[in-house]
Design goal:
Order of helices and strands: EHEHEHEHEHEHEHEHEHEHEHEEHHH
Oligomer: single chain
Mean pLDDT: 96
Helix content: 40-55%
Largest sheet: 7 strands, parallel
Number of strands: 13
Number of helices: 14
Radius of gyration: 21 Å
């Protein structure tokens, strides 16, 4: 198939990483794949590094200029399917295709659990302009069906798949030496874009409550919350126990360096890639039941799940695992087994191929 992905967002996180990893996987299976995005976006820079063809179009805002640019591009470059990923590029693709005599199928991927507007325009977009909707978790699929009344037959949950060979437990001491970390002691970590809803501030509040002098906290990632997080570290006088390491190109190394992983999100989650990566690295996890997270982990079996926005409960969950190495080992082993069987990259590609094929052959 000839597949085009569109992305209007200029940010960087799990959504953009999934687009690129899915594109690479589809290329390896013989499909022609291209990404269209704004020239100022981070994904425009990252795509060539990962071998994904990319072309710049003015898709960053809901403006007629963007819709016309996409229409002209599609006239000159016929494709089978357009996979849109944000609200803006979905609207632009819908309007561009509406004006073409022969238009490709549009598949809309919904990555986050934020509420979708209930109005006539949005209903047209989701039920008539696109051929199919993909969500990154079953909870998001149910939300669109129950809250918005969209037909379930045209919505499929396809969680993000992770390469199990890339994310696997390794030589902890060796990777710590390579990263410049202490080989002794213990590390708690969060690997996530620094956004408010990822819960970094609650994690810091919880960490400050812990009786765990031999534990350090690593914050891996970059984003708009850097300054508030830095201020919070100073406010809680955690400068000697918390390290912000910034954006890292090899998150698998940082996962291998950890003893315990935490993602205390309180909004906007599908099945987070970081949770799946931690599972494949056989890490014990403390997280929250937000979005579709509990489709990946089960409380007491493969993670400790605590209420969101509750620093005291988060601290209690962390303290329990910090004091129990056997529980950490058991949860990590269970998490690895579950991730391998349910969230592989090949499984995601199989399901997306099926969605694309059905959308292409469906009657418009």
């Amino acid at each position: 198939m000839r597949i085009v992905h569109t992305e209007a967002s200029c940010g960087w996180g799990g959504q953009e990483i999934r687009i690129l990893e899915e594109s690479r996987g589809m290329q390896a299976r013989g499909h022609q794949v291209l990404l269209l995005c704004p020239p100022e976006s981070r994904i425009f820079v990252e795509a060539p590094k990962r071998g994904v063809p990319v072309q710049a179009l003015p898709l960053g805002k809901k403006r007629l200029r963007g819709a016309m640019a996409l229409r002209r591009w599609l006239q000159a470059n016929p494709v089978d399917v357009i996979n849109t990923h944000s609200s803006t590029d979905t609207w632009l693709a819908a309007l561009a295709c509406k004006t073409l005599s022969r238009s490709p199928a549009i598949v809309r991927t919904r990555h986050i659990s934020a509420a979708v507007a209930n109005n006539a325009g949005t209903r047209w977009l989701y039920t008539r302009a696109v051929r199919h909707v993909v969500t990154t978790g079953e909870a998001i699929r149910r939300q669109l069906i129950e809250d918005n009344g969209f037909p379930g037959a045209m919505i499929t949950s396809v969680p993000t798949g992770i390469d199990p060979a890339r994310f696997a437990a390794g030589d902890k001491a060796a990777v710590r030496r390579r990263l410049g970390l202490a080989e002794t002691g213990h590390y708690l970590g969060i690997v996530a874009t620094l956004r408010s809803w990822k819960g970094h501030l609650y994690l810091l509040d919880a960490f400050a409550r812990l009786d765990a002098p031999d534990w350090q906290l690593l914050i891996v990632g970059e984003g708009p919350m850097r300054e508030p997080i830095t201020d919070k570290i100073r406010e809680l006088q955690l400068q000697q126990r918390v390290t912000m390491v910034g954006q890292q190109d090899c998150p698998e190394d940082w996962m291998r360096a950890l003893d315990l992983f935490c993602l205390p999100s309180y909004a906007n989650e599908g099945v987070p890639q970081a949770v799946l990566q931690a599972m494949l690295t056989a890490l014990p996890i403390v997280t929250t039941p937000v979005g579709a997270i509990t489709e990946a982990v089960q409380d007491g079996e493969s993670a400790v799940v605590v209420p969101p926005k509750d620093a005291a409960a988060l601290a209690a969950g962390l303290q329990r695992l910090m004091a129990d190495p056997e529980a950490r080992r058991r949860l990590g082993s269970n998490a690895r087994q579950r991730a391998e069987s349910h969230f592989s990259l090949s499984s995601m590609l199989d399901r997306m191929e099926s969605v694309f094929s059905q959308a292409v052959h469906a009657q418009p």
